[in-house]
Design a protein that fits this description.
Elements: H1 5-85, H2 91-99, E1 102-108, E2 115-117, H3 126-134, H4 145-149, E3 152-159, E4 162-169, H5 171-180, H6 182-189, E5 194-201, E6 204-208, H7 221-228, E7 235-239, E8 246-254, E9 260-268, H8 270-359, H9 364-395, E10 402-406, H10 407-425, E11 428-432, E12 438-442, H11 443-460, E13 466-474, E14 477-484, H12 491-497, H13 512-522, E15 526-531, E16 537-543
Helix pairs in contact: 1-5, 1-6, 1-8, 8-9, 10-11, 11-13
Length: 549
Amino acid sequence: MSVPRSLRFLWVLLAVVILFAAAVIVWTDVEHRRVRRDFDRVFEGHVESVARLIWESTRGAARALDTLYALSEESLVLTARLIARVDLEDSKERERLESGGVRAWLVGKPGEEPAGNWGPIGEDNRDGFKEEIQNVGEGEIVEDGRAGRYGLYCAHFCVHGRTVFVCRDAGELAGLRRETGLGSLLRQVVGKGVVYAVIQDEAGVLAGSPGARVSSFEKDHELGAVLAGDRQGMTFRMIEKLDKPLFEGLGRFPLPDGTTALLRVGVDASPRLAVQAGVKWRHRILYLVVGLLVLISFAGAWLLDRWTKRRREAERLLAVREEESRHWQTISQMAQTVAHEVRNPLNTLKMAAQRLQREFSIQAAERCDYQELIGMLQNEADRVNQVVSEFMELGKPLVLELESLPLSEVLDEALMPLCVRAGQEGKRIGVDPAAGKQARLDRRRFAQIVSNLVGNALDAVDPGGAVRVRADVCADGLHLAIIDDGPGMDAQTLERVQKPFITTKARGTGLGLSIARRLIEAHQGSFELSSEPGKGTQARVLFPLKPEV
C-alpha cells in the first residue's frame, strides 16, 4: 500500500526541519567560536599594546637614565677641575660651590692627606669613605655604601697631579631615576582595563603596578616555562579569580643588565565573559526553539502517522463491513430461496416419517432397524430445518429489545437446554454468575449468543470434559467468558473457523460463530477468540453497560 501524500509531505518537512536545525546548530557554534576569537584578538591586541609600550618606554627610560648618568659624570668632572684651580680658602668660592649643589670635596696630592669640605661626613668615617670611592675607577659614580647613607653620589678624579673627591646631593638624581624607572612606568599603564603590569623573575617581583597580586614561580609552573622558552611575543591565558576574571599576557622581558625577566600584563576579562555569556544565552534560546520545533515536527509526524494508520484501519474495517453487508444480503436472498424451496418438502418428510412410525407395524425382527431409520429420517429433517432457520436468522435485520435484566436469571435461562445436552453427552458445564448484578441486554439475542458459543465449546470437548462459563459486571461493562478444556486449535485453524461456512465439525454449518459475532456487535460489544493446541479454547465477550440501540 502506497504512503499517503500528506504523510510523505510531513516526513519531507520533518527532514527539512532536522537539516535546518543541524545548520542552525553548526552556524551558532561557528558564530560562538568567531565571537570568542574576535574577543581574544581584541584582548591580545590590548595586552600586546601595553607590553610594547612598556618595552619601548623601558628602552627610552634606560637611554634617558644613561644620559642622566653621563651628564652627572660630566658635571662632577667640571666641578673637580674647578676645585683643582680655585682657592678653596676663599669663602666666596666655597659658597659658590655649595650653592651649585656640591656637598663635599677633598683635594690633595698622592700620599698626602686631602683637605677640603667634608660636609656631612663625620671624622670617624672619612678613611672608609675615601677608600670606597678610590676602589672604583676614576670618574665612576658611587651612590651606595657610605655615600648613599649620607644622601650623596661621589666620584674621584686626577686633575693636575692632584686627587679630587667630589660629592653632590643625590636627591635630584634619585628623583629623576624614580621618574624614569620601571615602577613609575608600570604605575602609569594601569587603568582603562589594565589591572596590573608586573616584571617578575624566579626571585620575586622586580617592579610592578601598585596593589598587584600575582602568583609566584613556585605555585605557577607556566611562568617558568614561558621564561625558559624561546618564543617571541606573548603567551595568553585566562585566570579565574574570586573578585574578577583576568586575561593575562606573559612575555620575556630583557633587563638592562643583560638578564631576562617575565613581563605579566593582566586585563579585566569581565566584558569578554559578559558578552560570551550573552551569546551563549542567545544560542541556548535558539537551541531550545530549534529543539521545540524538531519535537513538534516529530510529534506532528507521529500523530499524523497514527491518524493515517487508524484511517487505513478504519477503511479496512469499513471495507470488511461492506463485504460482510453484501455477504449478508446474499445470504438473505439465499435464505428466502431455501426457506421457500426446502421448508415445505421438509414438513412433508417429517409428517410422512411420523405416519410411518405411528401407523405401520413391522415384524419384531425388523422393528429395531425400522425405528432407527425413521429416527434418522426425522433427525436429518430437523438438521436441515436448523440450517434453514440459521439462514433465515442471518437474513433478518437485527432490532434489539434492550432491557435491564438480572444477569444470573438470564444466564440460567440460556444455559438450561445446554446443561441438559451436556448431561446426555457426559460433559459438564460450570457457571460462575455475578449474583445480584444487572445488565442491559436483549433476552432472546443474548440467549442465542450463549447458545452458539457454549454449544461450540461442548462440541469441542470429549465426554468427561468440562466447559466453564464466567460472567461479571465491571466498570467497563459485562464480561462473559466461555472456556473449554478441549484439544484447542493452532493459529491457522483459529483464523479459519471465524469465517462463515467454515467448521471443524463433521455435521456443522460454520454459521454459529458468525451469528454470535453479529449479535455481539449489534450490542456494540467486542468478541475475542483465543486457543492453543492442548490448552483448550477461550471465547471472551464484552458488552457495554449502556449500548445504544
